[in-house]
Design brief:
Layout lengths: L30 H10 L8 H14 L3 E5 L2 H17 L13 E5 L8 H5 L3 E5 L10 H10 L5 E5 L8 H10 L3 E5 L7 E5 L5 H7 L2 E3 L2 E7 L6 E5 L12 E5 L2 H11 L22 H10 L3 H18 L5 E3 L7 E2 L6 E4 L7 E3 L4 E3 L8 H10 L5 E2 L15 E3 L2 E2 L15 H8 E3 L8 H14 L2
Parallel strand pairs: 2-3, 2-4, 3-17, 4-5, 5-9
Antiparallel strand pairs: 1-10, 6-8, 6-12, 7-8, 9-10, 11-13, 13-19, 14-15, 16-19, 17-18
The structure holds pyridoxal-5'-phosphate (PLP).
Pyridoxal-5'-phosphate binds next to helix 3.
Length: 457
């Protein structure tokens, strides 16, 4: 382990007195009121006023008709993916998933909870490469995937680190192929996308009310309303938290009722426990819903703080050969959940990484994600590597990976130099997530920025 405290490049930098986190829960005290109310009235299980009210508040904030409160974002994604499979291919027997034998086009650079439900439902994830403008699913690679697997009818996509993807383009491609979308807005609650008045979201735009924005006509639509089946998470590291929790979001009463039924063990209307479908214990507790009733009031404030953190990094690092995680400022307003940076190819110092250990070298005017992560950690701040792309995960190593050029696997050749583009692998190699906790002070962030500068000395 490198000794940063005796490395002359870091002379004069004192360790943080308390740890600076990547993204930790931020409680305000108001949460207590709704939790106490649940306890005092004895409504502490998976029924109660807090659940009903937070469902209404979230639906109204996002501009959708129904929200179903669940135990986790993963639960929401599972039921959303199962429902998509059932709508496409019919009800499955209890021992088989609704996507049995079917391919599903999936975001590649995301947390595995986005796409594991495809496997829970016995489907086969096909990973779609990432674009460089927003670090989300690349429409060009998605088009290519439909050329290769035209029978595919389902897309599962996430908005990475709170930055909306290219939804007008993706929805258009999905519509051309009669495909449905499961939208994972776990990281992007409160982020919005400007959908065109004559694009594939024209119905949603009409309902939301057309506005002008830098010469374009359309409407700002919230992430979490852009798929056929939509999910958010209230995990402890998210922009607001219930300590855990998630929601399924929809405009269809039938879909909301179905997910609510599945989440409470699929009980049929009978005097005894009777079941015609497989059930799950996925409903949110009224206590967690109470925490959320306190938290939702702070969503806008948290987004403001996260944006300020992102902008301070962007300004503070602008003299280095690095860039921040990008977003399309004409078509999107991110929630800036995590600030990330990527090192320019020419400024990458040598680094090799294995599962258990890694090596990096100091090189003048260069650095590497691992050096920066080690340096900020040595002084007491938490960063993290970029989410490792799904196509590089051991569990999914035999699954197809599609880039703009077609099959993204097996592209090297012992006899010909060079290999195909793999945007996700490149972001993973050169990028990192920076401490983005909304309680981080300006002084603490300035020190993180200074440490990063010293890494490039
Ligand atoms: C993109 C993404 N999807 C899904 C999840 C899963 O949500 P949960 O932890 O609430 O199950 C997370 C985070 O935890 C996430 O970051």
């Amino acid at each position: 382990m490198h000794d940063f405290t005796h490395d002359p490049r870091f002379a004069g930098i004192e360790p943080f007195t308390s740890r600076v986190w990547l993204a930790s829960p931020t409680m305000h005290g108001d949460e207590q009121r709704w939790v106490d109310e649940a306890i005092q009235t004895n409504w502490v299980s998976t029924v109660g006023t807090n659940i009903n009210e937070i469902e209404k508040e979230i639906a109204s904030f996002l501009g959708c008709k129904y929200a179903v409160a669940l135990s986790a974002g993963t639960a929401a994604l599972h039921l959303a993916t199962k429902l998509a499979g059932e709508r496409l291919y019919g009800q499955a027997p209890p021992s088989r998933g609704t996507l049995t034998g079917k391919k599903v086009f999936c975001s590649d650079v995301t947390f595995d909870a986005s796409i594991n439900p495809v496997a829970y439902e016995n489907g086969e994830a096909v990973f779609i490469d990432t674009e460089t403008d927003t670090w989300n699913m690349d429409p060009g690679s998605l088009r290519k995937a439909f050329e290769l697997y035209p029978e595919t009818r389902l897309i599962v996509l996430a908005h990475l680190y709170g930055t909306p993807g290219k939804m007008d383009e993706i929805r258009k491609i999905a519509d051309e192929h009669g495909a449905l979308i499961v939208e994972d807005a776990a990281e992007s609650l409160g982020a919005a996308f400007f959908a065109s008045a004559d694009g594939p979201y024209k119905e949603n735009v009409r309902e939301a009310g057309v506005v002008e924005h830098i010469g374009m006509r359309g409407a700002w639509l919230e992430t979490g309303t852009l798929g056929n089946y939509n999910c958010i998470s209230f995990n402890g590291n998210k922009i607001i938290t219930g300590s855990s929790g998630g929601m399924f979001l929809t405009n269809s009463k039938e879909d909301a009722d179905k997910v609510r039924k599945w989440s409470t063990q699929s009980r049929e209307a009978a005097p005894w426990y009777q079941h015609e479908e497989i059930g799950y214990n996925y409903r949110m507790s009224n206590i967690i819903a109470g925490v959320l009733r306190g938290q939702i009031r702070y969503l806008e404030e948290h987004i403001k703080q996260k944006r300020a953190i992102y902008e301070r990094y962007r300004n503070g690092l602008s003299d280095l050969p690095v860039r921040m995680n990008p977003y399309d400022d004409e078509h999107s307003i991110p929630n800036f959940w995590l600030s990330c940076m990527i090192i320019e190819p020419d400024a990458m110092a040598s680094m090799v990484r294995g599962e258990q250990d890694y090596l990096w070298k100091t090189e003048p005017e260069k650095s590497s994600p691992q050096e920066i992560l080690d340096a900020i950690n040595a002084f007491g701040a938490e960063g993290r590597p970029i989410w490792k792309p799904m196509h590089m995960q051991p569990i999914y190593k035999n699954h197809a990976f599609i880039t703009r050029e077609g099959n993204g696997r097996g592209r090297s050749n012992a006899y010909i130099n060079g290999s195909g583009a793999d945007v996700g692998a490149d972001i993973f190699r050169r990028g990192l997530c920076l401490p983005s906790d909304n309680k981080m002070t300006v002084e603490q962030q300035d020190k993180v920025i200074e440490i990063i500068h010293r890494c490039f000395k």
